[in-house]
Amino acid sequence: MGTDDAFAELGLASGASQGEVKAAWRRLASQWHPDRNGSADAVVRMQRINQAFEEIRRAGFSAPSSSSEPSAADHDAPASHPPTDPTTGHAEQDAGETAFDDDTATRRQRRPIHRKVKLSLEEAAAGCIKVLRGKLTQTCATCEGAGHQVLGGNCARCGGSGAVHKRSFFGWPTGTAECEACLGGGIARQPCAACRGSGKTAARAYQVKVRIPAGVRHGDLLHVDGRRLRPERLAADLEIRIELLPHAFFTLDDDGTLRCEIPVDGFAWLAERPVPVPTLAGLRPLQPSRSRVSYCLEGQGFPTARGGAHGDQWVTLVPVFPQQLSTDQQILLDQLCATTSGAGGRGVDNRLDAWRRGLRAWERGLGG
After folding, report:
1. Confidence of residue 139 (pLDDT cuts 50, 70, 90)
2. pLDDT tens by residue, 331-344
3. Of the candidate ranges 231-235, 264-268, 277-281, 327-331, the one whose mean pLDDT is the lowest
4. Torsion of CA 290, 296, 300, 306, to 10 degrees
């Protein structure tokens, strides 16, 4: 039974406190214990009461182990354990899709497998395929994860009281403790033969294919129906947490804008030579201009929403010049400077010519 059904079986609302759960269990056990209730369905009802209590304990309920009341120690293991290390590969079902399920009770009993999948920006932008491998343990169907089966009748060790007497080194009685054989229930039980008392099936290796949709972001949680996976069906659903890996070139803004800063040869930039620019789709040439260093590549960014249109990519060129010029480079630069050193020089910008005239006039004014 699911956790909500377990609370209902004890006559409680979901999320009842520890004290309320223990009190309800004791009240119902006193009412339906086969030694106190002679009705034909007493044993079956008592089994359901114990199973409900076990389900709540596995879901996180914890009782003190020093009292005569049932303890939750060693009964909080989940029905399935997260497996290890995803690897890249191919996929079958889109992550985030959920098939309609008529059997809601069965779905509640299947606890999801939590996985983390690491993606590059390129994989996240275009969508990709992953193969997930790991090991899965499930709740034993025979005992419903309790690890034992209720036999009915009094526990042989405690005589049905749920508690045993503790004695000192000299044999003097020093109080009572919870009976370990029946966990304080007072009802005879035996370890489940199917799971050897573990409450879980043996770990089984699995390999499934999952398709990651385009446009997922860091931290996104995707749900996958385990029964629709291939090449095998899982008895549990997948909860996939996306983790985007840092990129060597790009930074991603919240609105889908990609930013990239590219160092370029300073002399090639002056000569306006084409620059190869990385984008999510590969390299593309950019024709630079000496008058600017920032450029917008429309539609070359990250999807603005899952499956939506792409944002823009902004490229910033950083001209890089030698820290120390060679003799040949210095000679060439001197020749280049000579072409613009005089007023009216060929190709001189009007602003530079006007500045030089103003500077000479200012200098003459100082001398006068």
Report:
1. confident
2. 998 888 888 765 45
3. 231-235
4. 160
Nearest Cα to 91, choosing from 216, 223, 243, 229?
Answer: 229
Bridge partners of 139, per DSSP, are 200
For residue 116, give the 3-state DSSP assignment: strand
- Residue range 3-76+148-191, CATH number: 1.10.287.110
**Residues with Cβ < 8 Å from 300, sequence gap 6 or more?**
258, 279, 280, 281, 284, 310, 312, 313
Helix pair 42-58, 18-32: axis angle to 10 deg: 160
Sequence ranges of the domains in the chain: 3-76+148-191, 87-141+201-244, 250-320, 327-367
Encoded tokens for 82: 């997260």
* Residue among 139, 75, 150, 76 at smallest CA distance from 109: 139
| Strand boundaries in 213-274, DSSP class E | 221-224, 238-244, 250-252, 258-265
Q: Which fold has domain 250-320?
A: HSP40/DNAj peptide-binding domain (2.60.260)
CATH number of the domain at 87-141+201-244, please? 2.60.260.20
